[in-house]
């Protein structure tokens, strides 16, 4: 029994998403709730039955058989069967239509990929895309999604409901986009996967295991794109490379209390060299074609951060990558990081002049940056910026870091 | 915010060709300057450099070759930025590395059609 208690949550995530993708493909995206219900019912039955009788020999096969039967029962009971499925079966030679549900590896992967494109439809907001991805593609519970977004279940339920409504209105189908539209649609998918990863990586949520799981799921979904010929594009390789480089610091960047350890304070022996090598491998594979995506540039920046040693070449390269990144797409975070790189490459004086032009005085990181830049140049100004940063931030971890910087000022 | 065009002019014939290191240092200055504008979220389009080949057409089907690279004030490139005022745009243009080699930046407000 203990065994099944551990196994079910794990199986739930992986198999729930597979069943839901395949069944939604059959029922149509407008009936996604039916697919979700059947998957949930299957797991409910599993936890009841396995709790009493013990684990079956092959739990996955058991789940698939039950899900298939439940789906068939549903179809037989429901008019949906006659209206939607029957017409396709008119060429069937058997007298009793025996509807088969294809749960082969290949079909599962195809359905999941198509589901990814459907969920990452441009008609719904990226916030909704991420929530739907976490639920439908990653199999996270509503509680977990609410925790990840630092909000409550009602908000997430509402968001999921509205997103599904919108997809219904837009009559989004579970299918591969046309080859001519694939690049454009892939852009949206990549953006969602990127944000999904960041949600786990940069969230201030306390549940470290959950945050890591979100990142790993984003990587798993990106890998699905790599395994398919039509979606194995340079930008996808660049994105997974970026994720590998970031993920290599999982163990080093958060302590056991869930507090962030700053890059310069990390124990680099905890960096995962295997993931760093994978990141390099994918970055090489990303370096074909003539389209430079922001993932290429960010992967390049992340690569240089895997070399702990400060060199002129490192910071000059990072600065130039940020210069290019900002030309592609502005973000306050990139502007601040670029200015930090500028201080490392060109010196603090130049960086202070540039920082003061950024017009980000509502951002606590802006003041934290200026506090850093003025340290060793003008202690009073450094202190007043750190204090402004302290006022603006809500995050406990950030407050601790700023406090430490202020007390370091006194020792200068 | 209004958009402004920066037109870069220089006497490209007499600008001394530097060593590879000097060329690289100059490229870096341009990249850092443009990156700095982008970091303020004021870059609209980095623009491009212009090649030395070209034609000028005049009334009566008169075609003269060249954008006259030999003249002192040849256009070498352009960039589009956005700023609150001509004053602000001019301030941004002051950081352009072209002045070190004697070139100029013409700052023009864009009036959308």
Please supply descriptive tags for the structure shown above.
heterodimer, A: 412 residues, mainly alpha, elongated, B: 113 residues, alpha+beta, Alpha-Beta Plaits, 25% helix
Largest beta sheet of chain B: what is the strand line-up?
Answer: 2-5-1-6
Mean pLDDT of chain B: 90
Total strands of chain B: the figure is: 6
Strand proportion of chain A: under 5%
Percent in strands of chain B: 35-45%
- Percent range of helical residues of chain B: 10-25%
CATH homology superfamily name of chain B? Dimeric alpha+beta barrel
Structural class of chain A: mainly alpha
- Most extensive interface, residues per chain? A-B, 19 and 12 residues
> What is the rounded Rg of chain A?
25 Å
Helix content of chain A: over 70%
CATH architecture of chain B: 2-Layer Sandwich
Class from helix and strand fractions of chain B: alpha+beta
Number of strands of chain A: 0
Q: Count of helices of chain B? A: 2
Q: What's a quick, concise take on this entry?
A:
With 412 residues, chain A is mainly α. Chain A has helices spanning 2-27, 32-53, 59-77, 79-85, 105-119, 126-137, 142-148, 153-169, 182-202, 208-227, 234-247, 250-253, 273-286, 294-305, 312-328, 332-346, 348-355, 364-374, 379-392, 396-410.
Secondary structure topology:
The complex is a heterodimer of chains A (412) and B (113).
Chain A: H1 2-27, H2 32-53, H3 59-77, H4 79-85, H5 105-119, H6 126-137, H7 142-148, H8 153-169, H9 182-202, H10 208-227, H11 234-247, H12 250-253, H13 273-286, H14 294-305, H15 312-328, H16 332-346, H17 348-355, H18 364-374, H19 379-392, H20 396-410
Helix pairs in contact in A: 1-2, 1-3, 1-5, 2-3, 3-4, 5-6, 6-8, 6-9, 7-8, 9-10, 9-11, 10-11, 11-13, 11-14, 13-14, 14-15, 15-16, 16-17, 16-18, 17-18, 18-19, 19-20
Chain B: E1 2-10, H1 20-39, E2 43-49, E3 55-58, E4 62-65, E5 74-83, H2 86-93, E6 104-109
Antiparallel strand pairs in B: 1-5, 1-6, 2-5, 3-4
